[in-house]
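Let's sit down with a protein and look at its sequence and fold side by side. Once you have written the record down, we can walk along the chain together.
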Amino acid sequence: MATTTVPPMTNGDLNNTSSMRATKKLATDKAYSFLSLAIPADNDDPVIRKSHRPFILDDEVTASDWVSRLELAKVTETSHGAILQSGTRLRVLVIYGSLRTRSYSKLLAYEISRILWRLGCDVRVYDPTGLPMKDDANHDHPKVQELRDLSRWSDGHFWVSPEQHGNLTGVFKTQIDWIPLSTGSVRPTQGRTLGLAMVSGGSQSFNTVNSLRILGRWMRMFAIPNQSSIPMAYKQFTAEDAAEGGSRLMEGGNRDRVVDCVEEFVKYSLVMREHFELFGDRYSERPRVEPGTDEEVDRLTGKVNGVDLGSI
């Protein structure tokens, strides 16, 4: 019987592969490989579709564009199962950070939204045009209320900012500043997942996504491990009159990383959404009780002042 001799590693295990955790190849249903779970137009809210889904293209384009050709069997199957089980779609708020007519952060936000949309998410994009600077006089401004309502509605956020002067833009930060940091002792964004991406005009940088990650952590959001940074963004998108609707992200490693991030975001969000209350439960935010008191018994049995709220 022939044997195979493994050549010795002359420089040792440089990548420490011997310590890697053994994994199994995921079983996938090929029926989901290129399936779209997008909400059909006749089942969608026409007001929401017009105001918060500017990324949707004509059916003819959507049926054959690069997003439709992505092999996403496992995450699509997982998303479909979650929709059937819960009866609700994953709700994602997408925010970008520029007011330019041809804004590359907006174009990237639209591409991210198209992938999320195909994966069955209820996607809503916020347009920052008209949002005032943060102050103490505009809390009732319609654009402020719109942003806060969308954040409250969402299960997760996907943030896309340009990098200017080495960091995120004021347009983007103003949106975050208008989202309340706390309501009482609880942060309104607490427990939501967060996807991160950035564009820059020069060489590749990670300053902005790193700053976004800090912001998300401060707001008690769960930022996914992956992130996308697109350098020289003006070279990465097609012309406005090009194929597939124009202004589309070009094929290459940068685009592949964007797909990775969106896929990862959906997987993490679906897993964590089922345990939203569990992840939001913190010792410091619960009422203090003393051992042996009625209050402790009530808390452990799910009762308040001896009353089972589930029976009311």
Observations:
- Strands lie at 91-96, 122-126, 156-164, 167-168, 193-199, 222-223, 228-230, 303-304, 307-308.
- The chain has one domain: 30-305.
- The radius of gyration is 23 Å.
